[in-house]
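Hey all, sorry for the wall of text incoming. These are the two entities for the joint prediction.
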Amino acid sequence: MNDLLRYFQRELPAINDFLDAEADLLNGLVRDVAKHIIGSGGKRIRPMLTLLFARSLGYGKDDYLAIACALELLHSATLLHDDFLDDAELRRGKVASHLKFGRTETILAGDALLALANEMGARYGNARLSWLLARGIMETAVGEIEEIEFSKKPSLDRERYMRIIIGKTARLIECACRCGAALAGATPEQEDAAGEYGLNLGIAFQLVDDALDYASPTSETGKPEGGDLREGKVTLPLILLMEDGDEAGRESLLEGLQDGSLTASQCEAVLEQVREGRYSEKTRDEASAYVEKAKACLDGFPPGEELTVLKQAADFVLTRTK
Amino acid sequence: MNDLLRYFQRELPAINDFLDAEADLLNGLVRDVAKHIIGSGGKRIRPMLTLLFARSLGYGKDDYLAIACALELLHSATLLHDDFLDDAELRRGKVASHLKFGRTETILAGDALLALANEMGARYGNARLSWLLARGIMETAVGEIEEIEFSKKPSLDRERYMRIIIGKTARLIECACRCGAALAGATPEQEDAAGEYGLNLGIAFQLVDDALDYASPTSETGKPEGGDLREGKVTLPLILLMEDGDEAGRESLLEGLQDGSLTASQCEAVLEQVREGRYSEKTRDEASAYVEKAKACLDGFPPGEELTVLKQAADFVLTRTK
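and here's what came out:
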């Protein structure tokens, strides 16, 4: 992982500076919200992927920051609206924006970051980039909506779960990879390979996120353990548990999730079952298959530092603990 | 106004059908919200302006609907978020979406319509169109934010009022006009002239809107008379009244607006002063100057049905009573 760390350490300052400078230009009503969400320690995976694919395909210009950072701002915008609609209290271990700054400031900051991201992508006068970004925004909006719809009427439908994690997470990561390729003037085949890598990486990333929710102590993730369960969110560890359980247990759990009637001790019992059945680990195993698929998409890319880092990034998704 | 009415009657069905068809494709959670706001009787000024400028510059293809309707959807998206943040009860005489469908559905429908509009504009693979749309979205977001910031700390600053109505209304109308020109492959000069027309028309449109708020009975506008005053919004009729009044009156009114302490009888007294001083009519007079500026921008456009309708549209902005 040394190349990955070195690459990130070298490139992150420019990305963070660019994000800060753009946020500084926003109106005072939303500027602090934007700086709070940007400064709350995201991993910057999306802008790094844009940069990595652009460079791996030979892009040498240093004007990549606007499109790379656009992907991060889109992600930030969705977090702001999601946390408000979820009544979330924490984000990355810090108090959620709507509680710190107010609902008006948070909704408008989400709108402003979405608009800014889109405008940053349009600065290149590159119709392909604008199209990719527009589609990524649309798919992410659809994913958010499907996730909230699902949480209102949860089921143990794996196919639906997969569609939701693709929509809410993987499509934007795919978009980040495609944008890097498009910036470098990639062939359609190269852009598709970059997109496939991103899609599979994004699925693995979200699977690991959902596994960590059941496995990681609060101090590492900044979120309470079993938070998804407590919020009534159905994710893969729970689906796997239910697939192994009996019909009666499934129905009573689903009912409890749907009407929010699970008691603290019922939640504890489910968390214990997930631990005993190693369903968090089994979710990681599924993620592992997607990581392998992602790496296979890199076969046609030229060897070099970026290729090494892209492979290590795929592995890192699996091994991260927060 | 006969040409204007005939043109609108002929072209509106295709625009409304397209908007309906796009809304039908949205996820069930937000579809009804989208159909409610789209079906609540907007004037479709933005898509008509796109169409009029495209055709006036010789555009003959019938693929104009996606970009024209994108402008209407952007406008709808901002209405959804604005009404929620304003705690508005009515929109065009109907119950506001967040009260009818809920906050989650309304915020997400706004996000989805914004994303869809952007994606519709990107379908052409025309980098200029994507850029114009991205800038229009950004300017509108900034305008919304400035308006809400202004309402939290109102002042009688005309310059600031003008900047806000340009941001929240006129820029998107400018954008609609520019998009029509860009679709037709206009020269930069032609696009600028179309944009100037739209900017001035948009300013006039908002001035008349603000005048109507003080002058029009609820049954015509679908909004309560003097609603802006009751909500603590400072618009031109009030600025004109204050400019003619004394320092003490100004300060006490501003204070009442800011802390929401105006009583019903104080509001009535202000409404009466606005009526007596004809400040609503004086606001219309200012609008009239912008209408003239807008029409002057049309000088270089070729004669024809579209030019006639664009001129009548400018006049109509002044004469409308709702």
